[in-house]
Write a structure and sequence with these properties.
Length: about 160
């Protein structure tokens, strides 16, 4: 399960982040990025503290954090699996690969496994069209996927069941 942090814990941990910034509103996105890097999502308590630090409304923080797809408002898995839905991947069987990954992980796009190991996302394009169909897991690209290759990638997970 995701580590549950109290408001006090978060406030203390943010004291390590805030000194790098001058309280200028233009620093909002870099602060959000750094906080998300620390927690792998943006805890509500952290967004409240960011609002106080920058002297802006909590609504402003929420608005920015929901506008950009990079920001997550809920805990995500240790590994984020991103499936390309671009044209090349679609034509080469991307939907079949997505279905196979959904089956193996037991989740749909936007969901996280109960053990917090994987979060599944779809993206418009990974930018590796020559390797279609492809996925990324964190910073690694897996290309020219087949159902068999998906089984190999997630074989450790299957053995855990």
């Amino acid at each position: 399960m995701a580590e549950v942090l109290s408001k006090t814990d978060i406030k203390k941990q943010l004291t390590d982040i805030f000194p790098h910034y001058s309280r200028d509103k233009s620093e909002l996105i870099p602060i959000l990025q750094e906080v998300q890097e620390k927690y792998r999502y943006l805890p509500e308590e952290a967004m409240q503290e960011i609002a106080r630090f920058l002297g802006v409304s909590e609504g402003t923080i929420y608005g920015v954090s929901t506008f950009y797809a990079q920001f997550k408002l809920h805990p995500i898995g240790k590994k984020v699996v991103r499936i390309c839905r671009g044209t090349a991947c679609h034509v080469r069987g991307g939907a079949r690969i997505l279905s196979e990954i959904e089956r193996r992980l037991g989740i749909k796009p936007g969901e996280t496994t109960k053990d917090m190991e994987y979060t599944l996302e779809t993206v418009a394009c990974i930018g590796a069209c020559a390797l279609a169909p492809n996925i990324t897991i964190e910073k690694s690209i897996y290309g020219q996927l087949t159902s068999k290759k998906v089984a190999e990638i997630f074989s450790v997970r299957s053995e855990d069941k």
